[in-house]
Amino acid sequence: xxxxxxxxxxxxxxxxxxxxxxxxxxxxxxxxxxxxxxxxxxxxxxxxxxxxxxxxxxxxxxxxxxxxxxxxxxxxxxxxxxxxxxxxxxxxxxxxxxxxxxxxxxxxxxxxxxxxxxxxxxxxxxxxxxxxxxxxxxxxxxxxxxxxxxxxxxxxxxxxxxxxxxxxxxxxxxxxxxxxxxxxxxxxxxxxxxxxxxxxxxxxxxxxxxxxxxxxxxxxxxxxxxxxxxxxxxxxxxxxxxxxxxxxxxxxxxxxxxxxxxxxxxxxxxxxxxxxxxxxxxxxxxxxxxxxxxxxxxxxxxxxxxxxxxxxxxxxxxxxxxxxxxxxxxxxxxxxxxxxxxxxxxxxxxxxxxxxxxxxxxxxxxxxxxxxxxxxxxxxxxxxxxxxxxx
Length: 391
Ligand SMILES: [Zn+2]
Ligand SMILES: [Zn+2]
Known about the structure:
Layout: H1 10-22, H2 31-43, E1 47-52, E2 56-62, E3 70-76, H3 103-119, E4 126-132, H4 140-146, H5 149-152, E5 157-164, E6 172-173, E7 178-180, E8 182-191, E9 195-196, H6 206-222, E10 231-240, E11 246-247, E12 250-259, H7 262-283, E13 286-295, E14 298-299, H8 302-316, E15 321-322, H9 334-340, E16 343-349, H10 368-383
Parallel strand pairs: 3-4, 3-5, 5-16, 6-15
Antiparallel strand pairs: 1-2, 2-4, 6-16, 7-14, 8-12, 8-13, 9-11, 10-12
The structure holds zinc ion (2 copies).
One zinc ion binds at residues 101, 103, 135, 162.
């Protein structure tokens, strides 16, 4: 006999979200958020495990229709070091920190789904509700995997979603393969020989060399990479010198590399190193490069993506699910989970007039709370109805 789902209402979902929004916590510091998540999950009657990678939480729900596949639904809980400029009643109460990426909404939608599914677990198999720390920069997903996420809780597939400014509310986008780029970061120190600015021949001009290197970097993409494989190298910080009449000895650069293809990623890194070596040889400099391979590309499983798109259409309506959007050059640490088993990461429209992600006036759109919750519940229904996942 099928149970009747007890859906949390808009008011309840919104109350959770606004509470998280007022109390934003950054990477691995999500103690209050994590405690609240665990408290709510326990109140729904779920089997709750805390402390994975510090603040990570996993709740387990077994279906009442017997054995079947094991899946994971994942939300992120962390906020950013951004000072909120919104004046709303639920604005951040912590100076310098805010939920500028909507993870407060992601957490609340998954909590709603957990409550709904716990009230009527009419499926065959097991659902894991994964609440992860530190999505922004710090790789909380990787930390949870290293802490034994998939060993303690074996899963056959894993799913996630992100709100997407620019897409209308009530619409979604599903990519069949690549959805978010890989991301690396670098710190480069070039050391020359400082001297009087009036006598540059007595020094080694690291500043001139750094400028040449920066202008050459786009050519590593535009003239060396296949044009149909998107890639970006951006220098985002350039620090040198303090006064008018001194050639600085040390130049510090920072930046990032983004692409989707892993062999290409290795090639770009190698050619970046070659360009630095050549520049140093030409100008007589020394270089110290700290190149940090960060997140892999997020690649959806095509068969599972098809199911997610069908489920989203059933929730949002015909014509509301885009399948034609290009991937984002931004990155996402769900990529680590999608490397462990088939995964799908979808975008849920946050509104055409939404401030962009990470903007101090951004806010998660509350109209999405029931939509995201219903997507999760419908997805579980579609995936765990007959004992097997998409081939
Ligand atoms: Zn973000
Ligand atoms: Zn985010």
